[in-house]
Amino acid sequence: MNLPVRSDVATGEPRYRFGFVLNTTIGNRTRFENLRKYATRDLEVRCSWTPVTHLLSVDASRTLRGLPRALAVRLWVLRQMWPALLTLAHQDVVMLHLFEAEIACVARSYLSRRPALVSSTDEAPIVDPDSYPVYPNQRSKPPWRRSFRLWLDRWRASRIDAFIPFSAWGARILEDSCKVPREQIFPIHVGLDLEVWTSRGPRRGASDELPRLLFVGGDFDRKGGDLLLRVFERHFSDSAELHIVSSQAPEELPGRVHVHRDLQPNDARLIALYASCDLLVLPTNADLVPWSVLEAMAMQLPVVSTGVGAISEIVVHDVTGFIVPAGDAEALANAIAGLLSNGDLRRTMGQRGRERIENDFDAAINVPRILAVMKSLADGQRVALGAAT
Where are the strands (E) in the chain, listed by range? Predict the structure, then answer.
């Protein structure tokens, strides 16, 4: 979508040209859509968007048939991001949320410091695997590969002009373990599109209607779906319903468990499902900044989750929900039971959660803040280039 761009009066050109090379795999699609929607409203900026997914399309799978999967995925990613790499010289600032693109752009920075590079991601370098919520596919890698990846991450960090991590948790790792100067780190989450996620208030079903638990997570086992099923079957199968949004949910399930396999980010059906439920339960084992927690709070659902990654920055324990230890079935059951037995507590936590989202995670507020960081980088680079000439 091309919108009017406020131009520089002297040249007639847009004041700023920003490129965005962003991962759109699974939950990252929501981030991409929200950022694009609100960034394109800024009349000072002309944006160039390059969405990249690691999921092979049907055509890509056919073309790259016979290659090892890891190589096929890398080639598919390179094909998607290549047009953006060819236009780097025409951008003032490029935001990157894609490992392969960061490697390419950082290597190019030895030849030219334009455009300025911004890294914006929910991840942080895995400096300490014991304290980091490492995903299963990363944990299975041999030590030499993990060490090499950390070296690459620190090398990239030394050449990036600014970081916009999704959380203070990610910012601390960048500053403390990667020695990125604090003045280069701006923790800002893109936020939810509250024009879409409009609060409908807490659910008030019929007096004989069972309360509804909700689980939303594409990677079912990693996000604790298997644990939740066991806890639900043992403690709540006679007193509640469980709604699961995941394409990876098992086929055989206990009674009163309902699976939704085809809901997409910002889908009206997904929003309606949130509105029909009483609380979100996400007992995740490895996560960073899960979108489902933000979505639930926007719809005034209290949240039961774990304290991995940056979740405890979003869910305030005993205020907007409960934080329980990862893998602790008894603590999970007790937290769910406490909320199911107290409708007033659910409503109070839900209202506080919505207030938190409106104050800290509104894309209409946060995206302009992100663009302001990028504009400042562009202005600083222009001053530096002018002084150099």
Answer: 16-23, 45-52, 93-97, 116-119, 162-163, 212-216, 241-245, 257-260, 279-282, 303-306, 321-324
Contact between residue 1 and residue 40 where contact means Cβ atoms under 8 Å apart: yes
Same domain, 87 and 123: yes
Asked whether the whole model's pTM tops 0.85, one would answer: yes
Domain residue limits at 24: 16-191+363-388
Bridge partners, 257 (sequence order):
242
Task: Say whether both 328 and 285 belong to one domain.
Answer: yes
CATH classification of the domain holding 219: 3.40.50.2000
Mark out the alpha helices in 212-267 (DSSP H runs). Answer: 225-235
Which residues lie across from 50 on neighbouring strands?
Answer: 21
**In the block, residue with structure tokens 């989450």:** 189
Q: How far apart are CA 224 and CA 245, in angstroms?
A: 13
d(CA 88, CA 116): 10
347 and 372: one domain?
no
Same domain, 170 and 243: no
Consecutive 10-residue runs of the chain (389 residues): their mean pLDDT?
43 84 90 96 96 90 87 93 94 96 95 94 87 80 89 93 96 94 97 91 67 94 95 95 94 92 88 95 94 96 96 96 97 98 95 97 98 96 70
